[in-house]
Specification:
221 residues; mainly alpha; HD/PDEase domain-containing protein; HD/PDEase_dom
């Protein structure tokens, strides 16, 4: 059982942070280092305020938040293996094999698509690694609310064949569902207000689209 006051290898955190900042420079603005910093801040907040902090390792929370998008399949470089990239990186920076393996597992388990495909597997992983619930909630919180709105349009704008209509559809396909998928009480509380902001935005979108003779019904769905 980890303690909220368990020692953290600050040198490891610093070197990994520098690596991630450089690595994320190749991503578009929706998944840049600013996103990582926001997720890290949210993860630390949730870890501190959610029950069961003594059962979570703060070092695993921090490293998993920093590395959760390293090896993301949307940006994976040729020759990179997402299943071992984080593990190998941490080992090269001096982490123990046990720590590296745990962080790799949490990072792989944070995937939205992975949970949709096998929700029972996600629940099992959270039982083994409670840090996953914290990092997963933090990552999903940054996908919703006003920042989430900006990230949607940034992401679709970076795709040459994507349109604003694709952005609006993404709210219905995924983002409005995230509140119900939060794992911590703190995450659910924060997600409630952020979801309300998205719903309000979609109402505005529908109203303004209607003035242009464009069907805004999809935004109001």
């Amino acid at each position: 059982m980890a303690s909220i006051d368990a020692p953290v290898n600050e040198g490891l955190i610093t070197s990994v942070t520098k690596y991630v900042e450089t690595y994320m420079a190749n991503y578009d603005g929706s998944h840049d280092f600013n996103h990582i910093q926001r997720v890290l801040g949210l993860a630390k907040y949730i870890h501190t305020h959610a029950p069961g902090a003594s059962e979570r390792d703060p070092q695993v929370v921090t490293l998993s938040a920093l590395l959760h998008d390293v090896g993301d399949k949307k940006y994976l470089k040729p020759g990179e293996d997402a299943s071992s990239l984080v593990n190998d990186l941490l080992i090269s920076h001096g982490a123990t094999e046990e720590l590296a393996k745990k962080v790799q597992t949490v990072c792989l388990g944070a995937s939205y698509s992975g949970e949709i495909k096998d929700p029972a597997r996600t629940q099992e992983l959270i039982k083994l690694h409670p840090e996953l619930a914290v990092v997963q909630d933090a990552d999903r919180l940054d996908a919703i609310g006003s920042i989430g709105i900006g990230r949607v349009f940034t992401f679709t704008g970076a795709r040459t064949k994507a349109s604003m209509a694709d952005s609006i559809q993404h709210f219905h396909d995924k983002l409005l569902k995230l509140q119900s998928m939060m794992k911590t009480d703190v995450g659910r509380q924060l997600a409630e207000e952020r979801t309300r902001r998205m719903e309000e935005f979609l109402r505005w979108w529908g109203e303004e689209a209607a003035f242009s003779g464009i069907d805004g019904a999809s935004a109001l769905a």
